[in-house]
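Summary for the steering committee. One of the milestones for this cycle was to obtain a three-dimensional model of the protein with inosinic acid bound, which we needed before selecting residues for the alanine scan. The sequence and ligand used are listed below.
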Amino acid sequence: MPQLEPLITEQEIEQAVDRLANQINQDYRDKFPVLVAILKGSFIFLSDLVRRLKFPLHIEFVCLSSYQGTTTTGKVRMGLPPQMSLKGRDVLIVEDIVDTGITINYLIDYLRKKKPASIRLCALLDKPQRRQVPVKIDYLGFSVPDKFVVGYGLDWEERYRELSCIYVVKET
Ligand code: IMP
Ligand code: MG
C-alpha cells in the first residue's frame, strides 16, 4: 500500500483558490465565459472556484484520460466531449494538474476547432519538470515537485480523490 505524505494543506489550498478567483473575477467581470472542466480530477477545484466567481458563467465538462496508475500512456482519450456550442465564447479551462502537458495540448487543439473567442487555462497544480510540450498556464495555484500527488480531486488508481489536502504518494 502507498504511504501519503502531506504536501499542501487545506488552508493553503483555500488561499490559492481565493487568489485565483480574484484574478479571474477581474479578467472576466464583463464577460460570460464557459468554464470547461476536465473530469474527473478537477471536480473539487471547480466547485470551490466557481462559488467565488461573481459573473455569469456556463459550466461544461469534458472527460479526458491518459493515465494508468502513475504513468501517462501519452495517448489522450476523450470520453465525454463538450455538449454546448463554444463558437464565439470565452473559454476558461479548469484543470487539476499540468504534468507532461499532453492532455492540455490535446484539449486546446480540440477546442480551437470549435472557434471560441478566447481560450485560457486555470490549473491548480503544475509539475514543470515533467513538461514534454509547452503549456501557458494563465492562472496557477502551485508548482509542485516531480512526485505523484493525490487528494482534493486527484487520484491514484481512482483512490484518494476525497481527501481535503494534497499529499505525495510514496510507493513502498
Ligand atoms: P499530462 O497530460 O501529462 O499533462 O497529464 C495531465 C493529467 O494527468 C492530469 O489531468 C491528471 O489527471 C493526471 N496527473 C498527472 N500528474 C498527476 C499526479 O501527480 N497525480 C494525479 N494525477 C496526475
Ligand atoms: Mg486531470
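Key point for the committee: The longest strand covers residues 58-68.
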